Amino acid sequence: MKILGLMSSHDCSFCILEDGIPIMHAELERYIRKKEPEGDPFAFFQEVCEEEDIDEIAVCHGFVKHMRENFPTGFEQLEKYMTEKNIKAYAIGHHQSHAANAFYSSNFDEALIVTLDGGGLDLNIQDQIVATSFTVWEGVGKKISSCHIVPSSHLNIGFAWQRVTKLVFGLSNGYPRGNQAGTVMAMACMGNPNKYLDYFQHFEFLNECYRLDDIGNDENFDKRFNFKMMREIASRSEQDAFDVAAALQKATETKVKHLFDQLVAKTDKKNLCLSGGVVLNSVMTGKLYDWYGSKFENIYICPVSYDAGLSIGCAQYVWHEIKENPRIKWEDNATPFLGEIYNSERINNAIDNDKLVSKKTTVEEVIELLADQNIVSVFSGPSESGRRALGNRSILADPRQANMKDLINEKVKHRQWFRPFAPSILRERVSDWFEIDIDSPYMSFVINFKEEVRDKVPAVVHFDGTARLQTVTEKDNKWYYNFLKKWEEKTGVPIILNTSFNDREPIVETPEDAVNCYMGTNIDYLYFVDEQLLVSKKGANT
Questions:
Q1: 78-109: per-residue pLDDT in tens?
Q2: N or C terminus: fewer CB in 10 A for the chain?
């Protein structure tokens, strides 16, 4: 059985679930090269997957209204397709889909499930449609059940962050540049959280930053919370901006801990699953291990926890709950690499450029280039779903050189000097380098480096001594794991600097995207892993 999951609002995406296993997940932003767009996911699906036979369709509440209003032609085509093929469609709640994606993607038999985001439509226990941004569920076997739904008007951490990101710091929080809350999170690590904390706590900011009559009205938000004053404070100096960001981060962590303290006291579950855009705040999620490491045996965040993952979650819900099929765990088939696979012909055509030269290479040669302080972008197999590059669409560099961080930020990524880079580390070496020994295959947690090893990899240690680590096993990504093993043999360090293969745009998807990004940046080499091809700019590396 094939189930097609569709997400039409921002983070437009589709997912194909075959016999309960996600076999493809695609985000529109990767194809149109603009972040977080709205779109017609059915037309997108047909463009990418011309011959797929679908048995059922899953969407989220609000899909029909959104499609009719914004993509009427696409909605008519979808209805025609369903009629011709006698296909049923099921509407699943927004947070219900988040919860399903989190639980069914885990290997847990049972778990507490928490979702936190900027808001979506769900059914409450009275079967009324409500806007919510915080929900609690229990997962047991193949069932998830709702425990608690909080209206968005009572709590909305995600919306608060969006407004601060845009109205205080002047950073885009939507199409075409995407939500830049990650920039604010990086700033927070460098600020004094107590200097402006009263501002966020006094007004119960995280509780009161959302009203139905205020949606989309920046002026009303500005009046209520005096964002003008906060903009003025943040603009005084870079350090003041850092301090404002730090206050927001601390207020968020305080609120989340308060919520979780109540949940933890009531649950007997030993596993915790998290989803929703707010859990992309990896600094906050890293704190969960400090707060509840003795309570929960495992903490899991699915690779696509934000709204693009809804197309996966609603399809998973239909398979397990509505169709009552057996539980599908990801023990043997877990993978975030759900994008398209591009053949050698397509790759060779992409590099057929009179400004490029290519040659066959070996992993050992690539490692030598990295050890000689070259920056290498890699393109391998299908792309990874989610916001974080995990080795198939990555830019790699030597973490042992402190100046590498500044070089990549300035010359490659063209972003703020304080933005950190992630360390990819062999899973079996985590305890040697970090203060806690955890699984983090999707870069979901920021934790502390051990103080005695920080000077060995300065390019991936943030200013506060932390890092958003990616743990790598052979099961996670075979080529990347073997690469890291060879890198460790060469350098004695089981860590490589890993950042997404992009430049102020979505992560590259196609071979053509890879070439375009490479040509427009100061990346030294482009490595096509599956073809063992090393590409360089003519005359640049001779």
A1: 999 999 999 999 999 999 999 999 999 998 99
A2: C
Range of the domain at 195: 115-124+146-298
* Residue 316 shares a structural domain with residue 375: no
Q: Let me know whether 371 and 518 are in one domain.
A: yes
Residue whose tokens read 């097609």: 4
Is 174's pLDDT higher than 80? no
On whether both 361 and 498 belong to a single domain, the answer is: yes
d(CA 183, CA 204): 23
Residues 290 and 157 in one domain: yes
Which residue shows structure tokens 């093929």?
Answer: 85
Inside any domain, residue 78: yes
- State the Cα angle at 498 between 191 and 297, rounded to 5°: 75
385 phi-psi bin (left φ>0, alpha ψ -120 to 50, beta other): beta
Choose one of 298, 332, 359: the last residue of a domain.
298
Question: Given a cut of 70, is residue 289 above it in pLDDT?
Answer: yes
Asked if residue 358 and residue 251 are part of one domain, the reply reads no
Which pair of tokens denotes residue 207?
A: 């509780």
Per DSSP (E only), the strands in 35-128 are 56-60, 88-92, 110-123
Q: Which long-range contacts (CB under 8 A, 24 or more apart) does 16-20 make?
A: 16/49, 16/52, 16/54, 16/315, 17/312, 17/315, 17/316, 17/319, 19/325, 19/328, 20/316, 20/319, 20/320, 20/325, 20/326, 20/328
328 or 350: which leads in pLDDT: 350
> How many angstroms separate the CA atoms of 7 and 5, rounded?
7
Q: Rounded distance, CA 369 to CA 392, Å? A: 18
Q: How many CB atoms lie within 10 A of CB 462?
A: 22
164 inside domain: yes
pLDDT at 215: 47
Nearest 5°: phi and psi at 401? -105, 115
Parallel, antiparallel, or unpaired for β 525-528 and 466-468?
unpaired
Same domain, yes or no, for 428 and 495? yes
- Verify that 252 and 371 share a domain, yes or no: no
Task: Report the number of distinct structural domains present in the chain.
Answer: 3
Residues 318 and 348 in one domain: no
